[in-house]
Amino acid sequence: MSWFGWPPDRRKRCCSGRDSDLAEECDAFLVGVLAERLADHSAVPVWVWTNLLAHGSDEALRAERDRPIDAASRDYPWREARSYLSVELLGLAGRYGPLGEIQHEALVPLELELASRAEVAHWSPRRWVARVEEALSAYASNAEAS
What is residue 107's three-state secondary structure? Predict the structure, then answer.
């Protein structure tokens, strides 16, 4: 694994402009559905599970919270973890909102941090949840202090 958790051949196609799906992947990233886009083709890098939390709308997070998860899916533990964190994020937004501010202040920086750290590729869903909860807790502490 390398850059953003993608294998070198994937990075080469993406950065060379030969990947015809690049614009669609960029759009998926910006609206928070990159994990779903990548899951159809390959394993999803750990940092990508943060994408919905960092960029998804209130409606998308509620849909994630309410979506049944196929226990037979290879991504089941990650989807279950992300669903749990969607509930946590929605609760935090209800107390300290708005959602976009929490995403901008806590989750987008976290997404970038995770994407830049090679060791994250080996994290378990439990370790990822703990790190996201840490970022949300820090945001809540700062909000209460303000």
Answer: helix
Tokens coding 4:
């953003």
Residue pair 136/88 in contact by the 8 Å Cβ criterion: yes
Q: Round the average pLDDT of the chain to a whole number and report it.
A: 85
What is the token pair recorded at 6? 């993608």
% of the chain surpassing 70 pLDDT: 82
Instruction: Dump pLDDT digits (tens) for 34-58.
Output: 777 777 667 888 999 999 999 999 9
Q: Are 133 and 84 in contact (CB under 8 A)?
A: no
State how far the Cα of 119 lies from the Cα of 70, in Å rounded to an integer.
Answer: 28
Three-state secondary-structure class, residue 87: helix
Distance CA 75, CA 43 (A): 8
Cβ–Cβ contacts within 10 Å for residue 69, how many? 15
Spatial contact of 38 and 48, defined as CB atoms under 8 Å apart: yes
Q: What is the CA radius of gyration of the chain?
A: 15
17's torsion region: left (phi>0), alpha (psi -120 to 50) or beta? left
Contact 81, 88 (CB under 8 A): no
